[in-house]
Amino acid sequence: MNAAPRAATAAGTELSGAAVRGGEAWEAAFQLLFETTATPVAILDERRRLVDLNVAAQRLLGHCPASRAGEPIVGAVAAGERRRSAAQWERLLREGRASGTTTLISSDGAELKIAYTAVIEAVPGGRRAVYTLTPAAGSPLQTNSLAVRSQPLTRREAQVIRLIADGLDTAEIADTLEVSPNTVRSHVRNAMSKLGARTRAQLVARVLGIGEG
Fold first, then answer.
1. Which of 52, 82, 171, 191 is the most buried (most CB within 10 A)?
2. Given CA atoms 145, 201, 173, 84 in this order, what sign does their dihedral have?
3. Which residues are within 8 A (CB) of 18 and not within 5 positions of it... i.e. 6 or more apart?
4. What does pTM read for this prediction?
5. Rounded to whole angstroms, what are the CA distances from 89 to 77, 81, 138?
6. Structural contact between residues 107 and 101, judged by C-beta atoms closer than 8 angstroms
7. Torsion angle, CA of 56/60/62/67, rounded to 10 degrees?
């Protein structure tokens, strides 16, 4: 898979697709971000089969069947959610961007409640779906999520930051979350205050664990 688009999504940069895809230096830089970011990132092909997971995603999913490369993700989705999951997938393919929650089943039968945002990226020979993952609210895995810190982010603050990382502006985030732009700005200000960030880029960098922005 072309490393640049997938790592660009993982790192949450605001660079244009053209810039991201240009040159070996960009390839190397974004490959490094994909591999080192603290945010779990999963890549699926157009048939919903796992292509790649970064280290953070491997830790999150553990022994879930969805963590094995080449496996159809549908086999790990809780039976009661498969119809909804299929509809979410079709929406992602149609609109190019989606967010929501799903429940995966681990190899020992435990439920893993996952929140995600996803985008479709064009690569040579097809398309890839790039997912950023966090434990959903109420999940026992949530202690590992972006929202749990010494100065904890609220669930909504973490959600807003994930959307910023996916390249959405204030108006688009407001539309996605069905809130006002002023509410989005308030969440951003609160998160910046908690993490000592001076800019949105720095905020994303600190949350994703990729250094100063």
1. 191
2. negative
3. none
4. 0.55
5. 12, 12, 23
6. no
7. -70
Contacts of 189 (CB under 8 A, 6+ apart): none
Q: Which residues pair with 121 in a beta bridge?
A: 128
Residue listed under structure tokens 């690569």: 123
**Adjacent-strand bridge partners of 104:** 77, 112
Residue 118 and residue 100 in contact, taking contact as beta carbons nearer than 8 Å = no
**Residue matched to tokens 């989705």:** 77
Q: Phi/psi zone of residue 148: left (φ > 0), alpha (ψ -120 to 50 degrees), beta? A: beta
- Residue 53 identity (one-letter amino acid): L
- 130, HSE (Cβ side, Cα atoms, 13 Å): 25
